[in-house]
Amino acid sequence: MTRSALEYHRQTSYDRHDMTGHGLDWPNQPDVLKSYPGLRTVPLPEVTAWPQDNLSVLIRKRSQEEGATNVTLEKLAQIIRLTHSLTAKARMSGTAFYYRSVASAGALYPFELYAAVHGIAGLDDGLYHHSIGLEALTALRSGNMMPNVSDALRAGTGGSPVLVFFLTSIFFRSSWKYRDRAYRYHLLDTGHLAENLLLALRAQNLPPTLYYDFDDGKLNSLLGVDPRREVCLAVVCVWGKKASGQKETGDLKIPARSLTHASRVSAREVDYALIRDLHTASCRVVKPDQGTPKMLHNLGLKTEPAQQIPRTDTWPELMNYAEVVFKRRSRRNFVQTELSVTRLDALLELLCATGHEQEDARSFAKEALSVGFLSGNVQDLNPGFYVLDLEQGEMALSSQGFMTDKMAHVCLDQAWLANSALHFVFLTNLKLLDETWGPRGYRYAMLTAGRLGQRIYLVTTAMGIGCCGIGAFYDDEAAHILGLNEQTRLLYLVAAGPLKR
Ligand SMILES: Cc1cc2nc3c(=O)[nH]c(=O)nc-3n(C[C@H](O)[C@H](O)[C@H](O)COP(=O)(O)O)c2cc1C
């Protein structure tokens, strides 16, 4: 039984000398569009006016404290479209394939989005699935779900949610290709989706609260997913001003099978025990009774004295937030052109701007995860490995020298990576993670890494430079070239830099 993050991560590590190739089971390729035949759908209304804010404003914006007012179906449609849309069409083996506003390892899109609504103009109270292919909401349950949601979130605030989003992942979508390693991508990809959702809510002045902790069993059963195949990984809640006073719950009596069968995405699915075991073990929420240690100080790295990241006066953005969301793509045609220091500072400042929303998961960005970057070709900055203190807005040199070419070799010889100006690296001490939060800590670290990864994609798109997430690397080699201690590992890498014109 895999019961710890350290064990899971080790057992799913890639080793250059021990890579067992495997063919893909094409006849059993997972369906990327979840459907509920026979259930009522509500079309998402067209959006007539998109938000005009720039991304730099949205990311740095502090949430208003008051609860939500005036949420309408039109607003909800806008939030959903800015979170998760089909953005580009390609043909694959003669059939249409759609890329999306959210990056996903292997374009396998394991995530699904659900919304519970209460008191929203134009939409009956209930639970809905975002059926992205239909541009519609599929009605799964009717009535007020919020007492059940509050109970599953164990949220004891005086308010009542008006809008709650549930982010799930379907295991086989990614494990079809990545097998046991896929749990990494379920979490990272879902983190990418969460970041888009949080920004979309801020753009509507709806203060979001992000939850990584909840009663898994209660939420999976509320959503009607088959927990052997699909599980809830994150919840984002918009709270109303005061408790609604209504305690009666909606229609939870629908026979579970009418919903759960929709979690099956292929006729012959393979169950990966490592994933199931770690996920099951991670359903226990551990609240550390002592203060949590700062991850940055537990990576085994020595650093030079830290420097403050300069404040950016003029943001180098070429388009507004809404345009960015629809233009975001993975780009790999990096060139060895210097990245300006203005762009570097803007990227770093926006990465540090975490925790402005009311987040139940606020602290995890600094406690479960550490962020650094390899500077390859940046104006006025020596090549080397730098670590960031997201909380203090500081950076410190850990080791000097040009390393992006070595890292490209470590990333399964994806040679184009050597040309990118920056490699952001997301790190955690897995033993410390296990000791502090138990296996659930792996969810915190990976979901947060995914969130920040999506943020880098969006900020680089706004600045007209390229970005690509990298989940494929030889794990021990990556730790070795970064000089990490035995328990610390690279979780995710995101390359960024100027592109060929
Ligand atoms: C967690 C994660 C890991 C990824 N790993 C790689 C990788 O190792 N190599 C690569 O070329 N692209 C990688 N990508 C990029 C995906 O292939 C890309 O997001 C997907 O094909 C969809 O294309 P798009 O981002 O242009 O919409 C990764 C993306 C994510 C989110």
Describe the model.
The chain is α+β, with helices and mostly antiparallel strands and 501 residues long. Helix content is 31%, strand content 21%. It has helices spanning 5-11, 55-60, 73-83, 146-153, 171-178, 182-203, 216-223, 256-260, 273-281, 321-327, 341-352, 364-367, 404-410, 430-437, 440-463, 475-482, and strands at 41-43, 86-92, 95-100, 111-117, 126-131, 136-142, 161-170, 208-211, 230-239, 307-308, 370-375, 384-389, 394-400, 422-429, 466-470, 488-497. The strands form three sheets. Strands 1-6-5-4-7-9-8 form a seven-stranded antiparallel beta sheet, sandwiched between helices. The longest helix has 24 residues, at 440-463. The N and C termini lie far apart (50 Å). It binds flavin mononucleotide. The site of flavin mononucleotide has 18 residues, from helix 6 and strand 15.
